[in-house]
Here is the input.
Amino acid sequence: MRQMLFWKHGPSALVTAAVTALAVVLIAGCGSSSTSRNTQMLQSVGKSEGQLNLVEWPGYVEPQWVKPFEQQTGCQVHNKDAGTSDQMVLLMRTGQYDGVSASGNATERLVDAGDVAPVNVKLVPNYATIFSDIKNQPYNTFGGVHYGIPHGRGANLLMWRTDHVKPGPQSWSVILDPAQAAKYKGHISAYDDPIYIADAAVYLKAHQPSLQITNPYELNSKQFSAAVNLLKQQRPDVGEYWGDATKQIQSYTTGDDWVGTTWQYQYFQLAGKKVHVAISPAGQGFVPTEGATGWSDTWMISSKAKHPNCMYKWMNWIVSPMANAEVAQFFGEAPAQSLACQPATLEAAAKAIGYAPDPHFCDEYHAGLPSFWSRVYYWRTPVANCGDSRGNSCMNYNDWVSAWTQIKG
Amino acid sequence: MEAAEAAARPRASVSRRVAGLFTGRPRLTVGSLLAGPLGWLVIGYLGSLAVLFAASFWNVNSLTGEVSQTFTLNNFKTLVNEPVYRTVALRTIAVASAVTVTDVLLAFPIAFYMAKVARRSGKAVLVVAVLMPLWSSYLVKVYSWRVILSSGGVLDWALHPLGLKGPGYGNVAVWLVMSYLWLPYMILPIFAGLERIPDSLLAASEDLGAGPVRTFRRVILPLALPAVVAGSIFTFSLTLGDYITPELVSNNEFIGNVVYSNITNNLPLASAFATVPIVIMIVYLLLARRLGAFEHL
Here is the structure.
């Protein structure tokens, strides 16, 4: 047998030829993929196909509101949690899922690659009563065409351990101003994703007006390198970069991390475990004085959806007042559906998910307060086109990814 | 009864005719036997490597991350010109080497005890004990290490009486966790290698006046070296490719992390960087071959 091991005699010509031939076939077989938007739109919702495959942020597809959906529509839901926007894009490219709850840093990529199809909002009756300031936004409407149904939104928060960080910080400078951050060296928690560069840009927008940053996702090279340099300065003070929520919850629990950026979800988990954590007070709108990055999520339908009828039924279901009130309270985000904020609906929804009723939920999350959301910069896919007089001089997402590698080194 | 036999006969004759095809044709027999597994190896494994390599020469649409199949050397130029990629590659190689050396030092005494000292029943227990960690989930093990290494964690607590502190998260943590994770892959080949050495050789060496140290250096080590190299291929390549452990117990990027963060939006760059560990492993395997590691597979 041993004589048959080819490395003992050098690779045989046969194997080499086979591999080469195969590579040629595979490469040729791929063909040149065209990048074009999909414009095929469903015209009427028919009978349910019985199945539905979803990709979602953890906490968006839970039994409390999925079970009734399955009973009413006959669509059996199979769901897959995705930890990052990149994962969502990857999963949707497989073509095996009907829909996704995409954040703004994924939507444009999905649309431009033709991975998702336009949504006929006439077939989604509950769309009419969705808050108007998240309709027709640059992260869900492209060239005047709707590519999804808004789900809910939230801000990325500043969270700190009250036993280590005193007094409670009001500004992001506690982790981004080098002098202040040094005080908590080794205990700062930062989000492990290229989109975190936008957090630095939000800070610079307020603290360095000379840079003239207008939108943290539309950065020319000067603004971009200022943000990147700020994060390079922050690097030695960072205790941990967190990519998944579990990791951050653990670090705050053990006391490795004291202060940093987080999602509402981790704050609730930690507060529930009686860890001494705090976020910016309600009077400040839960975010530091500079404002914050945030997200506004959109349910999109795959251009290769095998169960489009079920997906349309789902998109209508998840923004129905009751379901939207449930998911919003469960996850800790502002609902997209204005009718979800009616006290009776909120109370019934809280009961359904086993939470204490909170009639002021929507006020606390500023669900219907456009002036609050004007300080929240929803995640977007950075593109070369700045969207203003600067033309195509902005840094695109690949620049962001490679800069992120540079920052983390 | 007879009708049934008659019905069965033509089928039997077909299979007999097929069987007849193979008699006296050993090449055909071996060929058809190996066609399945070999096809899988070539198409599924070498084929995907070939595609990976080809993809590293392609361009990418910077917005959608879609690959356009036009030839470019830019990905490799980026890897060479940007110092960060060199830093990441060198860090990965350094940790992989450290893990390998650590595992050899830990595994050799254990494997020697298993192969030459332990009795038969003790041997079985030890083999099970070595394999046991492989039964539990990788993630559970790494998250446990996160708890052990956290500030005020088990390690800090244990070192406190000595006035020391744990290393915290970082390269040292990656080295510790990887050394732990891959240790069984080092113990088993060394154990198998040492078992092959006849006890009589050790006795002969002693009879001829060699002390334990000399016997180890001149008899055991040369005979066991191929097994050590075989084990090191596992520990080295597993460390080179891992990206979850570095993400969970350090803030540093390793080759796998860079590949992972580029895979959605810049597949060609990810492919180009993924060829780095492949090249390292080819060099490593060629060196290992010179050391005769494959003679004892």
